[in-house]
Design goal:
By secondary structure, the chain is α+β, with helices and mostly antiparallel strands. The protein has 9 helices and 23 strands.
Length: 606
């Protein structure tokens, strides 16, 4: 009984031990799993999320701009002044006629310039009074001369009509003499050119009808001369045994030619006769050549004598004709000159031509009279104009005197006052400095005219804004500043697509202060609205990080997921988006450290 009990007891004991070991193992594994999960959770980024919602969103545009006065007044002076005291400060409110500066008086350059201008105007006025009256002496003399020319032309026409027969005969004789003079002159020219040709033996310009057979006789002489020269050359060569160069130089009077023989050695002008008769036939040849040369010399001399005799006879006859023709030409010239001097310039004029000459002279006279009348009218107008200019110059002198008096009076002023109510925007001069004309000493904003602020915004966003909307002034610390949109215009900067928004500003503002404006662009209902700070942007566009959960044996695990979105509207805190995100999705807003898409994260304990 005890053995069985002992035998049964051993297996149960083993099972109990195994069960205990398994329990301990499981407990250890659970403890280790819990600890590892806790450690891992501690290393993950802790995030805060907000749920995407749907609903109404009012989009806004924010911007900053400087306050500018709608109208300002520049305080200036008209001449140089030294500032003694400044009675105002920047930002101070001033009233009309409040004293702004006190100044010292000194010599005024403007007064000096006005005095110089007055002197110049008075001089011009005095010169204008000295205008000389118009003088028409030359024009009247020209009219008298033209009238005399017309009367003379009429007298000639009348005289031509009374003596038409004798005038016609005289005119006929005059024309005949002119024609005869032309013919005689041509003959005279021919005679002169022919005599010159005979004297020079160049008959190219000679009249053929006057030279007879001179050309034939001259050619005969030249041929005889050539034959003689040739024969004499052969004779000389036979004597000397050397070639001879023959140079002929004709004279201009009787054409006797000197024959010049040139050899390589000096030889006598006349060959010496041989002292003895040669016994060979050469001597006979020399004698024959000499006889031939002597014979041809006689022929040449006879031809020259005949040519000179004929030339002398013909030239003498031509000179007689020339003297006769010259006398005829002189007589005809005298007749023509006498007729022209007795008849004047109208020697060839018919009655019709006299009438045309009268008409032209009548027109010339009328033109002179019309021109004189026109000149008188123009001078009358000019005189009236001069009188008006004189009166105007007198007015200028009087006005300059008044201006000079005002300047002198103004120069005595020692205070500069404000012309309007307003606020001092800037002071541009210091005590002791010299103020010059047209220099803005002080700029005073006229508060009652209001102030403006201008912002440059994106052109697409500006399409959502309408004139008349009121912007929220973010830095409106006193709560009394209002800004109303009055104008939307293009940005004038090159390449800019922005638009300029101009706001009318009222309240406690001053020129140069900066206002931060928030402009509502309109409200709308949107399906998905997320925190504005949760929308990120990179090179791929806008996106949000959404939390996704996955189940595990130890609980849910959370991962960040990128979702691309398009922002369609925004206000200061929220943005309406479109994309793969829905109302109710958990959007990561903050994290304890940077989070990337697909990173595991842990939710912040509430």
């Amino acid at each position: 009984m005890n053995e069985k009990n002992t035998g049964n007891y051993v297996p149960n004991r083993k099972r109990e031990i195994i069960k205990n070991v398994l329990i301990v193992f499981l407990i250890i594994m659970l403890v280790l799993t819990f600890c590892s999960n806790t450690i891992m959770n501690k290393s993950l980024a802790e995030i805060t999320t907000e749920s995407a919602t749907s609903g109404k969103l009012t989009e806004r545009i924010r911007g900053s701009g400087l306050v500018e006065s709608n109208q300002s007044y520049d305080v200036k002076i008209n001449d140089n002044k030294v500032i003694d005291t400044i009675m105002i400060k920047t930002g101070q409110e001033v009233k009309k006629d409040d004293v702004l500066f006190t100044v010292g008086t000194e010599d005024s350059e403007e007064i000096e310039a006005a005095e110089a201008s007055l002197n110049a105007l008075e001089l011009e006025y005095q010169k204008a009074l000295l205008t000389l009256p118009a003088d028409y002496t030359a024009e009247n003399q020209a009219i008298n001369n033209a009238r005399e020319d017309l009367n003379a032309a009429i007298a000639k026409r009348n005289n031509a009509i009374a003596n038409s027969d004798s005038v016609q005969q005289a005119l006929y004789d005059y024309n005949s003499n002119k024609n005869e003079l032309l013919r005689k002159t041509k003959i005279l020219e021919k005679l002169q050119s022919t005599i010159i040709a005979i004297d020079s033996n160049d008959y190219s310009s000679a009249a053929v009808e006057y030279i007879g057979n001179l050309i034939f006789l001259y050619d005969a002489y030249r041929n005889a001369e050539d034959e003689y020269n040739t024969a004499y050359s052969l004779y000389t060569q036979m004597i000397t045994g050397k070639p001879v160069e023959i140079i002929t130089e004709p004279t201009t009077e009787n054409f006797n030619e000197d024959i010049m023989l040139h050899t390589s050695d000096d030889i006598p002008d006349t060959p010496e006769e041989p002292t003895t008769q040669p016994s060979n036939p050469v001597y006979s040849d020399i004698e024959a050549l000499k006889e031939d040369a002597d014979a041809k010399e006689i022929v040449r001399d006879n031809a020259l004598d005949e040519y000179n005799a004929s030339k002398s006879d013909i030239r003498s006859d031509l000179m007689n004709q020339l003297y006769s023709i010259e006398n005829d030409v002189d007589y005809l010239n005298m007749q023509i000159t006498n007729y022209e001097s007795s008849q004047g310039t109208g020697i060839q004029m018919s009655i019709q031509e006299y009438d045309e000459d009268i008409r032209l002279k009548q027109n010339a006279l009328e033109d002179l009279i019309a021109t004189l009348n026109k000149t008188k009218n123009e001078n009358d107008i000019q005189n009236k104009t001069n009188m008006l200019e004189i009166e105007a110059k007198k007015k200028e002198v009087e006005n300059m005197k008044k201006k000079l008096d005002k300047l002198k009076e103004k120069n005595s002023i020692t205070e500069i006052k404000s012309k309007y109510n307003g606020i001092v925007s800037s002071i541009n001069i210091k005590v002791g400095e010299e103020a010059i004309p047209d220099m803005p000493l002080v700029v005073i904003d006229i508060a009652e005219e209001g102030y403006t602020v201008e912002l440059s915004v994106d052109g697409e966003k500006a399409k959502k804004i309408k004139k008349g909307i009121e912007a929220e002034v973010v830095n409106n610390w006193n709560g009394d500043i209002k800004a109303v949109l009055t104008e939307i215009k293009n940005d004038t900067k090159a390449g800019s697509k922005n638009r300029i928004l101009k706001f009318e500003v009222t309240g406690d503002v001053s020129t140069g202060s900066m206002l931060d404006l928030s402009i509502p662009c309109g409200s709308g209902n949107y399906d998905t609205i997320v925190p504005k700070s949760a929308v990120y942007k990179d090179s791929q566009g806008s996106f949000v990080l959404v939390v996704n959960s996955k189940s595990s044996p130890l609980g849910n695990r959370y991962f960040a997921e990128r979702v691309d979105v398009e922002v369609i509207a925004s206000d200061e805190v929220s943005s309406a988006v479109q994309g793969a995100v829905n109302s109710g999705s958990y959007i990561i807003t903050t994290a304890s450290k940077p989070v990337q898409p697909k990173d595991q994260v842990r939710m912040k304990d509430n």
